[in-house]
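Give me structure tokens for this 264-residue protein.
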Amino acid sequence: MLKCVLVAIAMAAASVQTVAASSFADAVSAYQRGDDATAFLLLRPLAEGGDATAQNDIGALYEQGRGTPQDYFEAVKWYRRAAEQGDAVAQYNLAVMYARGRGTIQDYGEAARWYRAAADQGDVTSQNNLGSIYYNGRGVVQDYVEALKWYRLAAYQGDAAAQFNLGAMYYNGYGVQKDYVEAVKWLRMAADQRYGKAENSLGLMYKNGEGVPQDIVQAYTWFTLAAAQGYADAVRNQRSIAYLLTSQQIADAARSALQLQGKK
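Here you go.
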């Protein structure tokens, strides 16, 4: 997923000259009303003048083909110009382009480089993605401890995907001592954000009594939540334990699922 900052201009506009700020604000207004061509025309001179935010946004418009024909090569060019100025959003976008091989050869080493640059600035998605780079050993030597480090940083910032990944690391004992209780803790945080994989995994923990007392009704509740999001594994898991429950227990689980949904 690319990142575009056209919708958040206040701080960026305050950091440039009045005329440029006005042009940037006009570009944002055009973008928000769906006039991508005008947004592109207003951003282009700002980007050519060296404004990193405008450079990133021009890159995003090229990548999406909004206001201009889609051109991944141009997207990479503009992302790189902004990334080399230290723009964390552009660094993330450039990393994604390298990881996907869009507008450039696929190069996980370069993806890792730019994810790290953004992650070091606190970009939460880059931190999680860098964790996955180390977990899978793509472009870097596989290192579960390093993966755990980056997952943890993103998880503490509230990123649901990272919380799920961190829970999985504790469950499997990758880069850390296996700890089902800690796994449940992080899976629950992700599940509370309606992260389907975490809801399903939490259901399995309750089904098997891992890190929590075994509770088939609770398992069914979490499978129900994940299944409601179309998570196929959860549908199968739900069916696999339905025969163990009474109709009243199934009704109770459904009611609990609705209550948990209402808290989101």
